[in-house]
Amino acid sequence: MSFNKWKNKKTRTSDTTDSLVSKGFLKESPTLPLVYTCNVPNLNLPIWYKNNEQQVQDDLDKYGAVLFRGFNIHSQEDFQSFVSHSIKKTAQYVEGATPRTNLTKGIYTATEFPPDQEIALHNELSYVTTPPNKIVFCCLTAPQHGGQTQIVDIRKVLNRIDGEIVREFEKRGGWLLRRNYGNGFGPSVQKAFGMTDIEEIKAYGAAVDLKVTEISDGIVVTEQVRKAVHQHPQSGERVWFNHISFWHPSTLCPQVKEKMLEDLALSEFPFSTCFGDGSVIDDDTIEVIRRAYSDEEVKFDWRESDVLLLDNWNVAHGRKPFTGERLVLVAMG
């Protein structure tokens, strides 16, 4: 099969950037992400990106997700080079909730979560005062089956959520995230904040509108109230940008929730969400929100050397269950 026939089978092409790289969409994911496909061997992605940065940024602004496929990205060092060109200042994973390994210079492993579990759609660190604008993933080892990083345009999610629900969050002051540290579930407060001194953590909290309460040695509760709907910092578009459904107790798989309830009250769960005024968000409301995400999500199979660049304010991401080895790296900033 000729290259052009193979390309047309795999990618629905919208236009061509140059003789080296074509641009289009995947057959299995025809609306997101926009794909830049390398047509020649060993093309250096960092250099190509540097020469075409404005075009890529324009597409990122429009679509929210850009996939680079077939470029010469084969190692952590290759990915680090791309990150240094595409993210001006990498961010640390402060207030993190999921296990990941900090490799070097703002490069982390993707969440190290049991492979048989799905990671629900979310915008990275939506609950902090300065979330990362960009997220970039790199697949170094593709799983045998599954393991897709599903993505969704949260502008479309907002349009799918009943207006009464949106107005209820606005009327009740947004949403509140409560996290409990030190009860044997989830990370320690020191791990989550990357700080060992509780007074340092309290000072950090005071600076970022985060209430930190020390119950006893190692037992800490944090609370923060955030908007459910934000304006995109560049475009000004309204976006459904939060972790409301992601951390609602109803999202837990039944076996995990049952195990937690053996030892904890709901208020003692490692995480929970409610309305900004502290009132309960009922399960039916969460189900409406969850369906809005699932109805809009798209996914594609990772290939080794794939690099996925996301506008964190426009596109949420997650992870499907998988079998086999899977190594995906991530940077944010």
Account of the 3D structure:
- This protein is α+β, with helices and mostly antiparallel strands and 333 residues long.
- It has two domains: 3-150 and 298-332, Clavaminate synthase-like (Double-stranded beta-helix); 156-293, Clavaminate synthase-like (Double-stranded beta-helix).
- The chain has ten helices and 20 strands.
- It has helices spanning 3-10, 45-51, 53-63, 76-86, 154-160, 163-171, 189-193, 198-207, 254-263, 283-296; strands at 11-16, 21-26, 34-38, 65-69, 102-104, 107-109, 119-122, 134-141, 145-146, 151-153, 175-181, 211-216, 219-226, 229-231, 238-240, 271-275, 307-311, 315-319, 322-323, 327-332.
- The strands form five sheets. A nine-stranded mixed beta sheet has the order 1-2-3-4-17-8-20-6-5. The protein has a four-stranded antiparallel beta sheet with strand order 12-13-11-16, with helices on one face. The chain has a three-stranded antiparallel beta sheet with strand order 7-18-10.
- Helix 2 packs parallel to helix 4 and helix 5 (154-160) crosses helix 10.
- It starts with a helix and ends with a strand.
- The model is unreliable at 1-16 (pLDDT under 50).
- Its cofactor is Fe(2+).
